[in-house]
Amino acid sequence: MDKVFQNIIDFRRRFFAIPPLSAILVFFVFFAGALSARVNTDVERELDNTDLIIERVQDIFPEEPTLVMIDNFELAVSMQTDAREAFAEDDQMLALSLTRQAREIALRLERIILAAGYKPPEGPPNAILRVLEQNDELIEELTPSVDEFGDAIIRRDFAAYIDMHISAWNFYNDENFPVSGQLAQVARDRFLQIRRALIEAARLFSPEKIQSELDNARELVHETERGLFPEALEAVELHDMALELLSEAELMFANARPREAMRLIDEVVVLSRRSSEIARRGGLSTDRLEEEISRTEAIIAEATENLADGSRPEAMEIAAEAASLLEKARTSFQNGDTESAERLVIEARRTADLAVRSAAETGDINRWNVEKGLINTDKIIERIATQVEESGSREAKELHASAIELQSKARILFDDENYKEALSTSRAAADAANQALRIIERE
User: Fold this and answer.
1) Using one digit for the tens of pLDDT, what is the confidence trace for 322-352?
2) Helix H or strand E encompassing 13
3) What pTM did the predictor assign?
4) Which of 204, 226, 242 is the last residue of a domain?
5) Which of 18, 176, 351, 429 has the most beta carbons within 10 angstroms of its beta carbon?
């Protein structure tokens, strides 16, 4: 027996510890190629599920097991160990095959133990408690990186699954362990997905990469400056904008805001190239100025149409400002003041571009899209209601009730125009409903 439980201890030490995200990010900077090949969400989820089943068997392992029990447990642990090693070596198919075999052996052993009359210990299952505690650790580790590297989608999902994790703890404290376990496992899977997304974001926004991009942008700005002359007013204006944004990008980089720094660097490159192109042409001709007015008008019209639902008032104000500047540019052009017209159309174009970018940054979270999401979740909850009721499964009923409660909260947030929170809460409700459906389908 000492050998059996030493295997358990070794197994848990090797595969149940969650390394800090900071350590993974440092490792990824140096070994990005190796890590990227290993990320396979489906196989990793299968491995995690087998880990939990083996731990569940460990919780009910009798003090005086038979040889059959010992042999089966050692075999399950050994095969799962081999599966983890295959996964680490990027042999996904072998890892999947081995972990499924290990799981079948563990499940068969669980049936043998229960058939022998051994009853699980009273009180909360240790496996669920471990998942909840792992989620607590993941939340603590991921929070700084979500703030630094996470985009709007990652932040929204992270907040939603923190809510789900809190619900899992509430069900656990109410001794509703089946529902607690289901919610905790879903939250854990999502936290691990977020971790992988952050690792990729850290690679894309590593200090070395941003410093290199800053150096390249700085060189491009200086090269553009050498080709400028005072008469090319638009080129000079664009160059000045590029210089301002370059300084802002350097400030964002110094303040550890890599995503903002990279966005500004991209704008610097676009402005510098446009400035250089205009300088080579010697400024805007009358025909070219007229074309720029028409093109800017089209950009403003497109932005205004995309913002017509009223869900992004700040972006709409920017578009209105661009329209006002363009109207002044057109008036100056008609009055023969091409110099003023050129200056105003540059400013109108810059403002119109900003309106388009502002619309794009929040385009996935507007009233219309959120309402569609809410309707879809309503349909999921309604569609499975009869199946849940007829199934007689207490676990499925609890999850369905949790989905209804979350969806009601999402509707309140939507009515309060808190669209981000409404969307994330509704997605958590849909997850709970889908979990209930999967339980019914298994039974």
Assistant:
1) 888 889 888 888 887 777 787 788 788 778 7
2) helix 2-15
3) 0.42
4) 204
5) 429
